[in-house]
Structure formats: structure tokens, C-alpha cells
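User: Quick sanity check before I run a bigger batch. Here is a single chain. Can you write out its predicted 3D structure?
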Amino acid sequence: MIQSWKQLEESAKELIFDDNPVQPKNSGGTKKEEDVIGNELIIQCKYTDAKNMSILKKDLDRLLENANLLEKFPIFITANGDGDLILSLPVKVDPQLIVDVIRLTIISNGLQKMILNNNLIKTPDILNKCRKRELKYKGLMQAITSKITDQFNKLSSILDTKYKNLMMYNLFE
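Assistant: Done. Predicted structure follows.
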């Protein structure tokens, strides 16, 4: 259980380990840096011993400003002494990404529940309902995969063109 701002920052860093995160020195002691910064993400952490948690507008504005300056996606993580943790994704940054995150959550949670509760499938009617949900999850997954594949293909095309241009330039030097 997280019981300090330092533990919260460490947890945030672990949460985004795939993004090569770092904790800037004096992250809580300056107004210039956020608490955890990765290649693609920037995180502001707020810990309180109180039961209630909130996000101050000034803190959110600073996170959004820094995310914009550094061209990173902002995440706000709030925790309290009771072990509650809330991860917030500002919608105004990229509304479509929020939709994709929600879709991934629906898929993951739905599949997990169906796997755990498969012993409840005792009639053809229940099996048919499960198959319909399975198809829904598959459709959501394909939509996300298709979007990511399209983005990856665009990037590959750009990099291939850049490579060809650089190699052509080197030939004439």
C-alpha cells in the first residue's frame, strides 16, 4: 500500500516502466518539472493522508502545459493514506485515445470475467450470450489494432522515405 508521496512516485515510475521513465531531481520541490517523465508520458503525482482526494486546477494546468511543451501525454495520479489510487487522463489532450483506453478496459475486464465465470455457462442460451460478448470484444480489439497498425505503417513509410533520401544524398557527396 502506498503511504507517502515518494512511494507514489516510485509506483508511477513502475507503472510506466515500458516508457523508460525517470524521476527528475527535486520533482516536488520545483514548479518546472513533473514527478515522472517517460519517452511518451508525463506524470504528476499527488499524495494526501486525508481520505478525500482532489486535483487542483493549477496542478492540472501545469501538467497540461508541461505535457504540451515536452510533447508527451499527461497522466495525473492521486493517492491517499487509505490505499486508494486514482489515475486520471485529461480528455482534452486526445479524446480518441481516451476512447481506446476505455475500449481496452472493457475488453480486458470482460474477458477476465468470462474466463473466471466460465463454469456458469450451463445452457445453450447462456453460451450464445457469451459468444455475442466474445464477438463484441473481438470487434473492439480489431478496431484498436487496425488504428495502431495504420499509424505504424504511416511511420514506416515516412522512415523508409527518409532513409532513401539520406542514402541518395550521401551518394552525391
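The chain is about 55% helix and 15% strand.

User: Great, the batch can go ahead then.
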